[in-house]
Amino acid sequence: MTAAPHPALELREITAGYQRRAPVLRQVSLSVHEGEAVGLLGPSGCGKSTLAKVAALLHRPYAGTVRIGGEAARGWRHRAPRAQRTAVGVVFQQPRLAADPRLTLAALIAEPLRATVRAAEAAGRAAELAEAVGLGGDLLGRRPHEVSDGQLQRACLARALALRPRVLVCDEMTAMLDASTTAALVAVVEDYRRRSGAALLAVGHDRTLLERWCDRTVELDQQSGTRRCTAALRSAPRAPADTTAG
Predict the structure, then answer these.
(1) What are phi and psi of 125, to 5 degrees?
(2) Which candidate, 86, 133, 148, 223, has a CA 20 to 30 Å from the CA of 26?
(3) CA-CA distances (angstroms) from residue 215 to 81, 180, 194?
């Protein structure tokens, strides 16, 4: 009998937060398999973004284990091994906080590539990604303050896809965008997943969007009077992919 494949992303009994005596999350477990899209829902303050940062190896939990492709995380942020860091791509809610204001959009997209591939390859890959997310012309020569939130988020998504991650974490990626830009970015993510088989963890509060976009949703509930959140699987059948909702 062939052994079942490891999840692309597995979070086991994660306790995390910013004050050890009052963690935001306690013993939360979640897994996302290769090619699967999981939506993470919950009210503000329940720890969705904290869990997303843990999943992306950007925030060290107090307890629990993160596994990428079956291998336990061996470090966090810049101390994580390169193979694990580059296996996860992440897109944040606020692109202006996630982008270096000194960089042009072209340089922003190429940022992860400069340290891993030759300059000519980086330029070619960055141009390919820019076209995929709908950026072109003089936009690539502009800096963040010279473009809209939607244009900047397109560049941030392109940057997240630059190293062909096996797991993509989208933390409220479309929360600040209009319906047409939301639909365009979701379509880019879905095209990438279809071609690569990557797993997706999509974090948000828009139930309609996530239930249409994802194969299943997981809900973090904030218990009354505490900061403890528990994950409860909700089998939500995937609706037709009308991503203009929300």
Answers:
(1) -65, -40
(2) 86
(3) 30, 22, 13
Tens digits of pLDDT across the chain (246 residues): 445 578 999 999 999 999 988 999 999 999 999 999 999 998 888 899 999 999 999 999 999 999 999 999 999 998 888 899 999 999 999 999 999 999 999 999 999 988 776 667 788 888 999 999 999 888 999 999 999 999 999 999 999 999 999 999 999 999 989 999 999 999 999 999 999 999 999 999 899 999 999 999 999 876 532 233 333 344 443 443 443 333
The 3-class SS string of 51-113 reads HHHHHCCCCCCCEEEEEECCEECCCCHHHCCHHHHCCEEEECCCHHHHCCCCCCHHHHHHHHH
- In this structure, are residues 222 and 48 in contact, taking their beta carbons and an 8 Å threshold? no
Q: Is residue 114 part of a domain?
A: yes
CATH number of the domain residue 76 falls in: 3.40.50.300
Residue among 158, 162, 149, 160 at smallest CA distance from 96:
149
Domain count, the chain: 2
Cα 194 to Cα 37, 164, 168, 175, distances in angstroms: 11, 13, 13, 23
Say yes or no: 73 and 172 in one domain. yes
Transcribe 122-142 into DSSP letters: HHHHHHHHHHHTT--GGGGGS
Q: Please give the helix or strand (H or E) that residue 15 lies within, else none.
A: strand 9-16
Name the pTM for this structure.
0.86
